[in-house]
Amino acid sequence: MMAKIKIRLVRSTIGALPKQRATVRSLGLRKIGSSSVQESSPAILGMVKAVSHLVSVVPFEEGEV
User: Fold this and answer.
1) Which is it for the CA torsion 2, 44, 55, 28, positive or negative?
2) What is the pTM of this model?
3) Cβ(36)–Cβ(26) under 8 Å?
4) Which pLDDT tens digit goes with each residue over 41-61?
5) What are phi and psi of 62, to 5 degrees?
6) Residue of 52, 64, 62 lying closest to 3 (CA atoms)
7) Of the residues 36, 56, 62, 65, which has the fewest C-beta atoms closer than 10 A?
8) What does 8-33 look like in DSSP terms, one character per residue?
9) In angstroms, rounded to a whole number, what is the distance separating the alpha carbons of residues 65 and 42?
């Protein structure tokens, strides 16, 4: 099983390129402060890297909420 990461939207997508907005939506993020838990796969990590100026990433432990 792959490690999981918690991705949180910390900056607005207003002014971001449409491609970056689509990446944020596909990560499961909508509003500022929203977060999602994803598998730490190469595809997800590449998406996070593309919008790294808009999101924060922390490791996710199974016991967390």
Assistant:
1) negative
2) 0.90
3) no
4) 999 999 999 999 999 999 998
5) -60, -30
6) 62
7) 65
8) EE-S--TTS-HHHHHHHHHTT--STT
9) 24
